[in-house]
UniProtKB/TrEMBL annotation:
GO (cellular component) term, any one: endomembrane system
Top-level enzyme category: translocase
Catalytic activity: a quinone + NADH + 5 H(+)(in) = a quinol + NAD(+) + 4 H(+)(out)
Family: Belongs to the complex I subunit 2 family.
Gene: nuoN
Self-association state and partner proteins as the record states: NDH-1 is composed of 14 different subunits. Subunits NuoA, H, J, K, L, M, N constitute the membrane sector of the complex.
Descriptive protein name: NADH-quinone oxidoreductase subunit N
Amino acid sequence: MPIGLESWTLARPEIFLAAVTALLLLYGVLRGETSAAFVSVATTVALLVTAVLIFTPYREGTAFSSLFIVDRLTATMKVLMLIGAAITIPMSRAYFERVKVWRFEYPIVVSLAALGMMLMISANDLMSLYVGLELQSLSLYVIAAFQRDSIRSTEAGIKYFVLGSVASGMLLFGASLIYGFCGGTAFVQISRALLEGKAGEIGVIVGLVFVVAGLAFKIAAVPFHMWTPDVYEGSPTPVTAFFAVAPKIAALSLTISVLMGPFKPLFPQWQQIIVVVSVLSMALGAFAALRQPNIKRLMAYSSIGNVGYILLGVAAGSEKGIQSVVFYLGIYLVMTLGSFAVILLMKRRDMMVEQVNDLAGLGRTHPMLAFAMMVFMFSLAGIPPLAGFWAKLYVFMAAIEAKLFWPAVLGVLASVVASYYYLRIVKVMYFDEPAEALDASAFGVNRAIAFVAAVIVAAFSLAPQPLSLVAAAAAKGLFP
């Protein structure tokens, strides 16, 4: 079947990003290591321009024989992901320059990962889903081990690759079962087959379980979270910041598209799985981080807990539930980038430090930085009136509306437990005596990101409507 102009128009942002990435790769190869600064700036601009292209002009529809779909939800998730990816590139420069591995390949690989995530988000077929997922995954394996002289970074890359390969195999096996029993890989074909009576086939249920398991690995949900603490701790800190936002947004968007699209007829079956995964993730995220001394590892468990809250909105299976997910992800993006911007400023004698105790006395030595970190920790703990409180409130309200009373109650309890380790960081910053102050840092990219994010999180209660309206519009497309 010939591919019409409409298909190319709908995929305009992806085509633009792929073309720019290819040109920048060629430029980097020809110019060598001196091109790193230009390539990083150009890639950041390209990612932001791609985000603008998604909505100017905005179009909906399917492309490439229904392999690719654009709607309000996919467009919104792409923009959130691209903003996260774009911000992490300038955040990375000072770190990689200090360890002498700042090379033009890094922003190129981040851009390729973002391209894979865009294809994932717009997947409308199990085959295009897998292609996008693997493009993203292969790029992430590379940047996890980007600091090649570091044993920890290399180990993180290998662990991520091995466990990620197993998860990809599980997803592919599940997809093959679904294809065998439903007679097609397109989401429309699968949905039609389920509505015509295939929903009762045990093979379809087993296939769905394997697909959900593969997706749970990508979003770091229990019990497929095992890679997260080690990879977060071992990867270079800017890479960890990237992992914490962009891939999570893309994988959660894909999870919604799969469960609320072709598998919506199996809602009673998959809701049980998602509720269990959500509760376990919230519980593990709350309890496992209580005694974590390493702040990157602590943030890994925090991300697992946040995924649990987000999945509670997915489990609701309602328009309000999906709205709460998009709303939560928008706030989570700002909180997480701000937190990692502060973590990237944790240096002593020009060496990065990662222990929670290294923040001791920050309130006296670097009061503005400590205040920003306090805002992020209070927000992640869900303390009103900060943005994180509204994110959790939206999710719990959606769960209660869907009669998921016990999961919502357990989520609130998990949030209370998790508050301990967030507040412990505040206590260390303001009440512990510093053994040695952190290095003073000039007002650079990371300080700017930390302060801007802190202002957004702190002032969010004054104007929550714009994000709420965007989330409502994104969710509405799934419930015509």
